[in-house]
Amino acid sequence: MIESYQRDGFLVLDQALPPEQVTALRTAAEQLCRGDLGPVEGGPAEPADDVLRQYLCIHQPHKVSDEALAALHAPRIVDALTAIIGPNVKAMQSMLFIKSEGKPGQAWHQDEFFIPTRDRSLTAVWIALDDATIENGCLWVLPGSHRRGVLYPDREQDDPRFDCTVELFDFPYSDDDAVPVEVPAGSAVIFNGYLLHRSLPNTTRRGLRRALANHYMSAESLLPWQTVPSGVHVGKHDYRDIVMVAGTDPYAYKGLDDLARPHSRRDKDGGCDR
Fold first, then answer.
1. Residue 231: how many CB atoms within 10 A of its CB?
2. Distance between CA atoms of 208 and 172, rounded to whole angstroms?
3. For the whole prediction, is pTM greater than 0.90?
4. pLDDT tens figures, 168-199
5. Are 183 and 138 in contact (CB under 8 A)?
6. Which of 132, 183, 217, 231 could be cross-linked to 138 through a Cys-Cys bond (beta carbons 3.0 to 4.6 Å apart)?
């Protein structure tokens, strides 16, 4: 498993979550979208009956959902993370993706572009809450694209297939090199923060492609993420709104912060937060 991850930059973990946990996360997703777990910044003012289709992505659901928080600690996932990252692992972000029919995907990107770490330990865990297929917008990856450890240049894009995120370009790969990662509900795609990946629109006539994407890194490394507080040297900045999932926190003496709140990223028609 580790050899293939190091070679390709990703792996598929079958049955990462049991069926009952997947069902609970689907229920939690609807509760979150309805506002039953508290307000979601940027969400619709008046939730409709089909509330899930009003959202594309909600950041930080683990802040209010016990089910999303439990998924951060899923035993099979944590076992894989400690094998990949090391014994001390922290999480800094969760994202609930809800891609209904006709909704866009995301252009080519690397997660380290958005969440820079000092030691290249950023690792994503993308958990399918529905069967993820080519038709409903599964992940596509460029195998091995992580190995150079290079962050590629970015530019604005207006391709209707993608939401409001920028796209990376000028890398030595083409779309023909891309591989779709179709996985059943409950499975997880674990991938390196430097791996180039994207998703395409949900082209089904009716159906959701829900997924929970969590981000982790070595707890032994500082996390110079988000806005640097006034008076703090950028080289010493360490984002401390984290969740420890394995081992010990070498920086526990700093304490923890409670900064992030659930917020929505809408598609191009509804605005975005990037």
1. 5
2. 33
3. yes
4. 999 999 999 999 999 999 999 999 999 999 99
5. yes
6. 132
Q: Where are the alpha helices (DSSP H) in 35-172?
A: 66-72, 75-84, 111-114
Which fold does the domain 2-270 belong to in CATH?
Jelly Rolls (2.60.120)
Could you give the CA distance from residue 99 to residue 191 in angstroms, rounded to a whole number?
A: 20
141-163, pLDDT tens digit by residue? 999 999 999 999 999 998 899 98
Q: Would you mind telling me the total number of residues written for the chain in this entry?
A: 274
Do the beta carbons of residue 256 and residue 242 sit within 8 Å? yes
Question: Quick one: average pLDDT of 25-44?
Answer: 91
Asked if residues 16 and 77 have their Cβ atoms less than 8 Å apart, the reply is yes
